[in-house]
């Protein structure tokens, strides 16, 4: 490995290991030129046929408040109908990993197991955008189907890494895609823009307990199979 490659690899490793989901933000806005730098870096994302299906609505100021209010508005009935099918169930290791990160959050913020009111309040933080001054709503084109969403997933990952490199904290939120009609209404998006997820972002409240834990990753042996013959 050349010196240059080694440096690049170290920079990437630092970014990948320092990025984490932020669940409490300070109210200060991110300067517009920094947000523009994030989206221009994320725009380099690879996509099938280079279709670049992602489009993103980014809010600040009154637009963020309007979006937050729309998300928090009470529902008359359970009207969750996401554009992309949600996981049917989490079984085995998926269930264990899901439980581990859920419990780490609850422990951090002091939600006691079985306290439904407290866990509902914490879940509601999603709709409050965890206090973030900005949200980026990532949409895909209806006709590009699942692979459009795959391309958007790459975009989301690169957006979050680019933000990390500029000192901006993020969290991807499928929770914001659970009522897509509300999102389209609030942001004036046409019906064929499918809501993939939101990314709330801003500067982190580093002293907040919700930001005090880090998630683990499975050992490579459980995810990679080497074939050489
Ligand atoms: C597509 C996607 C959707 C997510 N949706 C939510 C969400 O709705 N609410 C939430 O609190 N975290 C959400 N997360 C954050 C994950 O819980 C988090 O990435 C995972 O636990 C790993 O932790 P880390 O991001 O700190 O490394 C989402 C992450 C991704 C990639």
State the gist of this model:
This protein has 229 residues and is of the alpha+beta class. It has 7 helices and 4 strands, in the order ααβαααβαβαβ. Helix 2 crosses helix 6 (145-165) and helix 3 (62-72) runs antiparallel to helix 7 (180-187).
Structure in words:
The chain has one domain (18-212): 3-Layer(aba) Sandwich (NADH Oxidase), CATH 3.40.109. The protein is an alpha+beta fold and 229 residues long. Strands 1-2-4-3 form a 4-stranded antiparallel beta sheet, with helices on both faces. The chain has helices at residues 3-18, 32-42, 62-72, 92-109, 116-124, 145-165, 180-187, and strands spanning 55-58, 134-141, 169-173, 193-202. It contains 7 helices and 4 strands, in the order H-H-E-H-H-H-E-H-E-H-E. Bound molecules: flavin mononucleotide. Flavin mononucleotide (FMN) binds next to strand 3.
Task: Kindly list the characteristics that best describe this protein.
229 residues; alpha+beta; NADH Oxidase; 7 helices; 41% helix; binds flavin mononucleotide
Could you tell me how far the N terminus lies from the C terminus, measured between alpha carbons in angstroms? 26 Å
**Average pLDDT number:** 97
Characterize the overall form: globular
Strand content: 5-15%
Number of helices: 7
Oligomeric composition of the shown chains: single chain
Unreliable stretches (pLDDT < 50, length at least 5) are none
Radius of gyration: 18 Å
**SSE pattern:** HHEHHHEHEHE
* CATH-level-4 superfamily name: NADH Oxidase
Structure summary, number of beta strands: 4
Give the CATH architecture: 3-Layer(aba) Sandwich
Largest sheet: 4 strands, antiparallel
Which fold name corresponds to the CATH topology?
A: NADH Oxidase
């Amino acid at each position: 490995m050349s010196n240059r490659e080694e440096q690049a690899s170290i920079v990437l490793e630092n970014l990948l290991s320092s990025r984490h989901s932020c669940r409490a933000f300070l109210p200060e806005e991110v300067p517009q030129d920094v947000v523009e730098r994030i989206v221009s870096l994320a725009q380099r994302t690879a996509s099938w046929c280079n279709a670049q299906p992602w489009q993103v609505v980014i809010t600040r100021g009154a637009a963020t408040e309007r979006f937050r209010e729309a998300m928090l508005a009470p529902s008359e009935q359970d009207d969750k109908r996401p554009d992309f099918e949600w996981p049917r169930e989490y079984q085995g290791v998926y269930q264990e990993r899901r439980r581990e990160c859920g419990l780490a959050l609850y422990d951090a913020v002091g939600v006691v197991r079985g306290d439904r009111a407290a866990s509902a309040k914490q879940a509601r933080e999603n709709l409050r955008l965890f206090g973030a001054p900005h949200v980026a709503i990532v949409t895909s084109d209806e006709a590009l189907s699942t692979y459009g969403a795959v391309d958007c997933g790459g975009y989301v990952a690169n957006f979050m890494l680019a933000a990390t490199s500029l000192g901006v904290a993020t969290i991807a939120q499928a929770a914001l895609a659970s009522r897509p009609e509300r999102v389209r209404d609030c942001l004036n998006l046409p019906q064929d823009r499918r809501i993939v997820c939101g990314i709330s972002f801003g500067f982190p409240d580093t002293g907040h307990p919700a930001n005090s834990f880090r998630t683990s990753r499975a050992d490579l042996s459980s995810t990679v199979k080497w074939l050489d013959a």
